[in-house]
Amino acid sequence: MKNQIFTCFFLLFSIAGYAQNVVVSGTITEAGTGEHLIGANIFDKYAEKGAVANQFGFYSYTTTRDSLDLFFSFVGFQTQHLQLKAVRDTVINLALVPDGNLEEVVVSAADMDKIQEVSRMSSINIPLKQIKELPALMGEVDVFKVLQLLPGVQSGTEGGSGLYVRGGGPDQNLILLDGVPVYNASHLFGFFSIFNADAINNVELIKGGFPSRYGGRLSSVIDISMKEGNLQEIKGEGSIGLIASKVTVEGPIKKDQTSFIFSARRTYLDLLARPIIKASTEGSENIGYYFYDLNGKINHKVNNNNRLYLSVYSGDDKAYSKYKDFYVFENERTDYDEEFGLRWGNFITALRWNNVINNRLFSNHTFTHSRYKFDLFSNYEEKITGPGVDETNVYSERYFSGIRDWAFKSDFDFIPNPDHYIRFGAQVIFHKFSPGVYASKSSESEDDLRLGADELNSMEYAFYVEDDINFTPRLKANLGLHRSGFVTENQHYHSLQPRVAARYMVNPATSIKASFVTMTQFIHLLTNAGLGLPTDLWVPATPRIGPQESMQAALGAAKTIGGFEVSLEAYYKTMDGLIEYKDGATYLNLDEDWQDKVAVGEGRSYGTEFLVQRKVGKISGWLGYTLSNTERRFDEVNFGEWFPYKYDRRHDISLALTHEWKDNKDFSLAWVYGTGNAVSLPTQRYEGLEVNRFGGFSRPNINYYESRNNFRNRDYHRLDLSFSWWKTKKWGERKWTLGIYNVYNRMNPFFMDLGNDQQGNRKVMQYSLFPIIPSFSYGFKF
């Protein structure tokens, strides 16, 4: 195996060659903060070639010419122009100046960051400025809700932050925060994501044509990078909103060498409701819910070629109910104290070392630890006092699950010349699964009860190599291999996944693109029907339940028209090894092995996606449309026949616009339309016959379902508006934002069920969740 990988590396290096050329390399940062600009462009007008900065702002450009005419550009920043003689290898570190108005800089020879130029397809990067300006549910800016507005991405339930990409489930998204996988990315039972936009530097969504450096999931990659911290001066920002407040502070620990950033967010619904609940229950009851996020990062520049990063995320949700009371009976007083609740959250940490080995070779080594846990608990304490009596009884129940990872990864970027960008690396992950355990303790019993699956230890590893190759000025391709494996319970799974994405330039403004990828996922998420509750369980592939596998092919075209990027893509995807609970089975069947409660099946999804996007200018945003079909099939479900996936939407339209119509005012809107979700409803009802516990007979009503997901909810559509204005003060800037969610009060279906009308007639009932909701927030920067 190792020999094959080394041979592949050698062949790629040999193809690229080591010509005696002049190399210009360095890093691209933001002026005033020192933040690296991911994906910044370097273009040589004379040679009509260039380079792209990697995730840490590093670039390398090799040329045989003796004169260079270089343009350094990035969306939302002023382009810099340098002319120089190429007599020796040169290091150029540049800081680009933000363009506050996001006006488009026209440098025709430097426009190499066009959608038609890159070899990858099905990849979208949204400027953070747009993310922050678009309307938000209850005024809380959410990265995931913006991603839901893109073609090929479904939201699932009303208001939810789940992502269903090209027919896949939420567990099939590789969500990375500073390179660390996130297993549960939702707050408030799925209505908000865990990502605080004030702490984020870059967001990229990949729906297909996956580069070989990504693996372990089937449907998408959401690669999110945290800010690195201001190296020049102390800065801060925050906001006070309808349900939560947040604050971010960043600055230098040692100027131009070490920086930090710290960000915190918390809801306060429980704090506002606590006095009201206590007053209404005379202090005996307390009910509440809250979530919080903490982000922190330290960035240390050892020297020009070495940097260290330490990033940490911690977040929790807690819903609880506490009740205290007492009663007196025959001179004995009984005080009792009850508490019930659920808690879930993530802890993530990453330690990185960046090393510029030479002007063509860059390395990044990362050690990570992550933990996701879910805890459902109930505690009861009873204290009895009286004449000759002093007794305390304690009883507790707990259901918990989770997953814990330790991982190490090494990535290398090798850029021998402008026609090759080679990446290779390896990763190993040690998983510890806790797939659902129930435990109870009682002071009245010496024996504790424990039910559920034992902890499982697994190891996952991967090697990859890829090359972004310019075959000709018209033909460019990204070719790669991803080799992965999984070891669990004496079972060793192997997977070799070829990846290819190519583009052909029809003319300078138009290209045709195609991709083919295979993916393997060694972990599963057991999902209950209904809300995306944290009771969903992560479980590994086992000797009985194999990994998930997928194949995706896509064909499309991309074109730039003025300041608009236009893309049209058609895709076809198959998925094998999918699992879901059998009819009637849930996570609460603790006396059964989870492997006995699931059915294994397959899925397929195909469709066409259209996107028009404008990233710069006074008016920016996008219009997207998706026409798709997604189905599932399980031998033990729906008589083994294909049925629509619950979140299949035949038609999906989204419009997102922001308009900075004055220097201190902006307006934004988002409108969405989608075919209703598929639901299972009975088509007939008849009387059954059963023996009751008293030995008699009863005739219960039995519903007959003709097929799974045989009906559709009503079509979904909604309009959101937001208006912001800000003013510069001596201490900084303050900003007010007013928003309206669901402007025309559309009662969209949250779920449907059978019920009775006022006359007692049986009918299908629709239940809605969010009416029109106004919101406000006050933001500040200093």
Automatic annotation (TrEMBL):
Query: What membrane topology is annotated for this entry?
Result: Multi-pass membrane protein
**Where is the secretion signal located?**
1-19
Q: What is this protein called?
A: TonB-dependent receptor
| Family listed | Belongs to the TonB-dependent receptor family.
Indicate the segments forming the TonB-dependent receptor plug domain, all copies: 139-217
Compartments it resides in? Cell outer membrane
**What keyword terms does UniProt attach to this protein?**
Cell outer membrane, Membrane, Receptor, Signal, Transmembrane, Transmembrane beta strand, Transport
| Species this chain originates from | Cyclobacterium jeungdonense
